[in-house]
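Lecture notes, part 5. Sequence design as translation. It can be helpful to think of inverse folding as translation between two languages: the language of shapes and the language of residues. The source text, in structure tokens, appears below.
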């Protein structure tokens, strides 16, 4: 009897002293179509990279679900000096994943690293080439960060919150003695546990995370985790991702194919959707010997049936939209749907006027993103029917993205990830082509109109400028907008609180599992 008592006591003591790590953590598994490109903010990104970066790091400000800018690492800010000075107050108690407090010094350190990187995708919008120039970033005390601009800007806060720009706070311990990025140390709700390339990225709930006092709203406010871990599992094949969801191997599938909706619903999965801000396009290299002729570009526009492309791809969930202005924004109106009509006979007449002699038209695409591939296949058929000699170049996504970044293409089936303001979307392709390789449209008047829209905060004035931009693009055809992708996502019934939003980025905080 005494022996039994001591045995039970020993079991109780051992159980009480077992570390928490021995218990099975709750884990939310999100299926993604491809691996991330980097864990260093800003320098080597795509949409999946953006997803993981914004789980680990926080910016000063962030987008809410209604597309306005709200608090994140900063809980307050003031604008002074006639719109040229922005003073941010960091929220009290914020810490990095290494336990050290977040101060203005680390915000400035990361900014200096970003603006000094030639590969930073958003450098042009902050160094004066495509927007106001940040002349100084100051850290007068631990909780105050000051940005000084060379002129007032109506979109500076929106650019700071821009998901693609990665203007975040990071601790200098993220780099080694030579300045090479080694370990991402942010202040977000999740910290890196393991990145196994081409398999998964595993993140742990950050134990010292101190949330914002503002309510959770999109990427803004209190990002409080309800699970212990989040794993982003790489499953390239869409059918395999669907099967993994149904069997419970994953909890959420981010961006499902429209053709999968009915099947997933029949299998008891939860399917939700939201209007989209990511834009499917065909890029036209206006410096190319063939495509430098505006009549050739206009012929391409008349050869394409945008309505048919959008319908076939989205099954009625998103309509054709040739403009940079999404239906999800307050700026949208019927004028943005005006575009050269589908008219193969007119396309053929323009080709004759241009002296077209069967020169090949090469369209780059990839199979990783089904929408890009399907858009390219449909465009190939329509262009061929109108008299073009078309060659489809199917390459891997990494190569296609590199070609885009360096302007090495004639045509591309491409997609721009969500921008929360039309001005930010226009800024992705309107710029001086001699300075910015990703620029599609270097027209001086278009650059002037975009700059004017960036300077003003008056939305009515900006709307008029956007309308003028669309009219110019409709005539010059440097790019062909197809549609804005609907955000359709699916989750397992055991998942509660998960829902999509226009940004098209997974929000893992506030989500629970039964």
């Amino acid at each position: 009897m005494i022996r039994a008592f001591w045995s039970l006591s020993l079991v109780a003591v051992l159980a009480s002293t077992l570390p928490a790590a021995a218990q099975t953590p709750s884990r939310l598994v999100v299926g993604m179509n491809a691996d991330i490109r980097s864990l260093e903010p800003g320098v080597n990104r795509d949409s999946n990279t953006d997803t993981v970066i914004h789980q680990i790091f926080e910016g000063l400000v962030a987008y809410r679900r209604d597309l306005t800018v709200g608090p994140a690492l900063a809980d307050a800010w003031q604008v002074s000096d006639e719109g040229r000075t922005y003073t941010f107050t960091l929220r009290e108690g914020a810490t990095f994943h290494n336990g050290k407090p977040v101060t203005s010094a680390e915000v400035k350190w990361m900014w200096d690293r970003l603006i000094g990187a030639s590969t930073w995708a958003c450098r042009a919008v902050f160094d004066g080439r495509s927007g106001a120039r940040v002349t100084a970033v100051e850290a007068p005390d631990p909780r105050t960060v000051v940005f000084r601009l060379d002129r007032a800007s109506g979109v500076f806060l929106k650019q700071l919150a821009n998901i693609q720009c990665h203007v975040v706070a990071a601790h200098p311990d993220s780099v080694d003695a030579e300045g090479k990025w080694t370990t991402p140390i942010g202040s977000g709700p999740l910290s890196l546990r393991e990145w196994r390339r081409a398999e998964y990225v595993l993140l742990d709930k950050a134990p010292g995370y101190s949330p914002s006092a503002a309510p959770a709203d999109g990427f803004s406010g209190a990002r409080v985790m309800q699970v212990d871990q989040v794993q982003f599992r790489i499953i390239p094949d869409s059918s395999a991702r669907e099967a993994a969801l149904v069997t419970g191997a994953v909890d959420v599938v981010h961006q499902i194919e429209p053709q999968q909706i009915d099947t997933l619903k029949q299998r008891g999965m939860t399917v939700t959707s939201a209007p989209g801000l990511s834009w499917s396009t065909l890029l036209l290299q206006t410096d190319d010997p063939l495509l430098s002729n505006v009549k050739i570009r206009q012929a391409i526009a008349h050869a394409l049936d945008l309505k048919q492309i959008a319908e076939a791809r989205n099954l009625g969930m998103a309509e054709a939209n040739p403009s940079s202005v999404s239906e999800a924004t307050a700026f949208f109106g019927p004028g943005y749907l005006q575009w050269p009509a589908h008219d193969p006979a007119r396309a053929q007449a323009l080709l004759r006027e241009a002296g077209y002699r069967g020169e090949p038209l090469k369209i780059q695409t990839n199979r990783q993103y089904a929408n890009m591939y399907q858009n390219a296949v449909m465009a190939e058929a329509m262009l061929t029917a109108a008299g073009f000699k078309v060659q489809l170049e199917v390459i891997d996504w990494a190569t296609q993205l590199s070609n885009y970044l360096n302007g090495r293409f004639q045509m591309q089936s491409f997609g721009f990830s969500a921008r929360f303001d039309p001005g930010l979307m226009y800024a992705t392709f309107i710029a001086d082509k001699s300075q910015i390789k990703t620029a599609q449209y270097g027209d001086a008047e278009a650059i002037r109109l975009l700059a004017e829209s960036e300077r003003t905060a008056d939305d009515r004035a900006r709307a008029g400028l956007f309308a003028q931009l669309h009219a110019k693009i409709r005539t010059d055809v440097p790019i062909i907008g197809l549609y804005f992708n609907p955000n359709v996502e699916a989750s397992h019934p055991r998942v509660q609180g998960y829902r999509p939003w226009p940004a098209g980025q997974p929000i893992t905080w506030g989500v629970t599992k039964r």
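The translated text above is only one of many valid answers, since several sequences can fold into similar shapes. The chain has a mean pLDDT of 93.
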